[in-house]
Amino acid sequence: MLFWEDFHEGHVATSGRYVVGREEIVGFAREYDPLPIHLDDAAAGATRLGGLSASGWHLCGIFMRLAVDGFLAGSDCLGSPGLDEVRFLRPVHPGTVLSLRRKVLETRSSKSRPEMGLVKFHFELLDAAGEVVAEIVGTILFGRRNPGFRPA
Amino acid sequence: MLFWEDFHEGHVATSGRYVVGREEIVGFAREYDPLPIHLDDAAAGATRLGGLSASGWHLCGIFMRLAVDGFLAGSDCLGSPGLDEVRFLRPVHPGTVLSLRRKVLETRSSKSRPEMGLVKFHFELLDAAGEVVAEIVGTILFGRRNPGFRPA
């Protein structure tokens, strides 16, 4: 089980493999982002995206799934206050294979809540060629193994 | 059809009504955010969230759906380069009714792409009591009605 103390500034790891299917792109979009670029090949082909592309919010969901499977499920994760930045860099077309790279930017203890600590991450969704298709900077709360302990 | 020229700094509007159901919370989480706080009443009740709560990414999807239904579907929306900030302020439990408030923070033309313009929004997801449960600051690209025209 990973606690706050187990995260260290500068640590980088890559994990997971997620194939983004056409039906999933359309299914997600129909529910949450029903715009033609995510639903219709012809409409999407006529745009600068060059073809049917996953909703950015869908990519965020896939990112989260890769993060849960990659390390959060095995951690004392207590949620997130939010994100500082999300960038959609390249369109993600059906058949794209994604993995997740995470880097620890910063770790902070919490004065008001000594039972938890904060870890700020830089996450990148990579395609099979290693190109970054989206990046997310956000903070996650973790329980502390030693809530009372303050390093000198 | 709304074009870039139709958005004006300071404009505020509220739209939509989205009932967040228990099955939808669990279904979304099972696919994209399979952590106990989004899947299991007992596990969630033991946390500071006080009970089963929607994934923050699920809230982002609901936000997008309210934005599409509220104004994007009737616009020349060309996608988004990303978000500057996402804050999850209150847990969203089953049965919560959400609506969307949008405020135009800034409009900018694009030097490199005169056929489009950028609009930066502050979005707030509101519950039935008018409390803000999440906020998002992000930029959306829109086509211009008059691509060549530059106001003096």
Give the H and E element order of chain A. Answer: EHHHHEEEE
- The first-level CATH class name of chain A: Alpha Beta
If classified by CATH, what would the architecture of chain A be? Answer: Roll
Radius of gyration of chain A: 18 Å
> Helix proportion of residues of chain A, in percent?
10-25%
The strand order across the widest sheet of chain A is: 1-3-4-5-2
Largest sheet of chain A: 5 strands, antiparallel
The CATH homologous superfamily of chain A corresponds to Hotdog Thioesterase
What is the count of DSSP helices of chain A, taking H or I runs of 4+ residues? 4
Main interface: chain pair and counts: A-B, 34 and 34 residues
Decide which structural class fits the backbone of chain A: alpha+beta
Counted up, domains of chain A total: 1
Percent of residues in β-strands of chain A: 25-35%
CATH topology of chain A: Thiol Ester Dehydrase, Chain A
- Oligomeric grouping of the chains: homodimer
What is the first-to-last residue Cα distance of chain A? 25 Å
What features would you describe in this structure?
Chain A is an alpha+beta fold and 152 residues long. Chain A has a single domain (4-143), classed as Thiol Ester Dehydrase, Chain A (Roll), CATH 3.10.129. Chain A has helices at residues 22-32, 36-39, 41-45, 56-72, and strands spanning 12-19, 82-88, 97-109, 116-126, 132-143. Chain A has a five-stranded antiparallel β-sheet with strand order 1-3-4-5-2, covered by helices on one side. The radius of gyration of chain A is 18 Å and the shape is elongated. The A-B interface holds A 28, 31-35, 37, 47-49, 55-57, 60-62, 64-65, 68, 72-73, 77-88, 138 and B 28, 31-35, 37, 47-49, 55-57, 60-62, 64-65, 68, 72-73, 77-88, 138. Strand 2 of chain A pairs antiparallel with strand 2 (82-88) of chain B, so a sheet runs across the interface. Chains A, B: Pfam families: MaoC_dehydratas.
